[in-house]
């Protein structure tokens, strides 16, 4: 019955260059539009051979369902919205996260829409827009605060979401996070192993949850490994690179200069290095550095820096799986993950070891 032609209008060849539609697939397969539509929906009364033929043609011509039509029929948008701040773009987070998310969405009906905003604006603005307009089926948010109003609003509206980072507000929700406490603790260990005792931390802004995680790990390392902290609160990783460089040049030129540096940001580490050199000191001699990084760029540019890798691409994959799981009704406590820092020795040592 599925291949009958008596109920099918005469096939009309698609217009060249036009967006592929169900009519395009019907013309190319010789099937009716209704049959094509039901085959793509995996209807039980359509044969497996027909379904495979329709899917193959749809893939070859790049067919995508019309979102407006899908929304009218199902009430769904098949859209996941990633809400990111401009600061995350500067820190090099956006691209690998988008890649990770799209790798997971590629096998689903969902599409990714990136919604950027400035942290100086109301952080609830993009969330209210998505909720009020029904612009997405799920949302991924980041730069989490201990008591985050976005989490409160999304939970109250029972809207599927996942967070890049954790909260401390007693609401169980899906998240993926990097263990910043472990990063800072292990960074102190590495510096002390090199004989450094006066350590400084370029930390996240105080209003974000991972500030307390990183600070706790840093202070725990100081206590356990017998080092002391050099105060450096004038700037944080959200400040401009110029501001970080200038503040660190002043510190390195003072009598209170540290001999060990922990950077909570790869881009911030570049500014710290510039500050060290502006103070006429040399990294690897007067001071050593451990930095968190999202890529190998810092190691290529400054191989003397010890780095700990945060895989943002993996974060994107885990967040995509979490928000889809929530859309499908999985319990939020089963959609939580935490990645660990991967220590990368200085590249110059690796080269020497091969000689």
Automatic annotation (TrEMBL):
Segments of skewed composition (Polar residues): 333-342
Region described as Disordered: 331-355
Annotated protein name in UniProt: LacI family transcriptional regulator
Domain HTH lacI-type: 20-74
Record GO terms (molecular function): DNA-binding transcription factor activity; transcription cis-regulatory region binding
Keyword DNA-binding annotated: yes
Record keywords: DNA-binding, Transcription, Transcription regulation
Pfam families on file: LacI (PF00356), Peripla_BP_1 (PF00532)
Origin species: Sinorhizobium fredii (strain NBRC 101917 / NGR234)
CDD domains membership: HTH_LacI, PBP1_RafR-like
Protein biosynthesis recorded as keyword: no
């Amino acid at each position: 019955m599925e291949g009958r032609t008596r109920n099918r209008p005469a096939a009309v060849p698609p217009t060249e260059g036009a967006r592929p539609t169900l009519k395009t697939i019907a013309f190319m397969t010789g099937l009716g539009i209704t049959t094509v539509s039901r085959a793509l929906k995996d209807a039980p009364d359509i044969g497996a051979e027909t379904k495979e033929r329709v899917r193959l043609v749809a893939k070859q011509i790049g067919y995508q369902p019309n979102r407006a039509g899908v929304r009218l029929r199902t009430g769904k948008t098949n859209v996941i919205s990633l809400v990111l701040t401009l600061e995350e773009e500067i820190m090099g987070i956006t691209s690998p996260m988008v890649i990770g998310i799209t790798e997971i969405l590629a096998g689903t009906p969902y599409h990714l829409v990136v919604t950027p905003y400035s942290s100086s604006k109301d952080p609830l603005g993009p969330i209210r827009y998505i909720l009020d307009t029904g612009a997405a089926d799920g949302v991924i948010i980041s730069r989490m605060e201990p008591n985050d109003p976005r989490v409160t609003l999304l939970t109250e509206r029972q809207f599927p979401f996942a967070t890049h980072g954790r909260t401390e507000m007693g609401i169980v929700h899906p998240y993926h996070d990097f263990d910043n406490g472990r990063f800072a603790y292990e960074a102190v260990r590495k510096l002390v192993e090199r004989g450094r005792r006066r350590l400084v931390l370029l930390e996240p802004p105080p209003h974000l949850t991972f500030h307390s995680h990183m600070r706790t790990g840093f202070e725990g390392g100081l206590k356990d490994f017998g080092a002391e902290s050099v105060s450096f609160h004038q700037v944080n990783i959200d400040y401009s690179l110029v501001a970080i460089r200038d503040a660190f040049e002043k510190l390195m030129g003072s009598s209170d200069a540290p001999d060990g540096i922990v950077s909570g940001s790869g881009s911030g580490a570049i500014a710290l290095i510039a500050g060290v050199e502006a103070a006429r000191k040399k990294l690897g001699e007067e001071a050593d550095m451990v930095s968190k990084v999202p890529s190998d760029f810092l190691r290529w540019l400054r191989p003397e820096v010890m780095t700990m890798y945060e895989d943002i691409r993996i974060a994107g994959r885990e967040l995509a799986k979490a928000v889809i799981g929530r859309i499908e009704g999985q319990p939020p406590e089963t959609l939580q993950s935490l990645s660990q820092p991967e220590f990368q020795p200085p590249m110059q040592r690796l080269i020497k070891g091969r000689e």
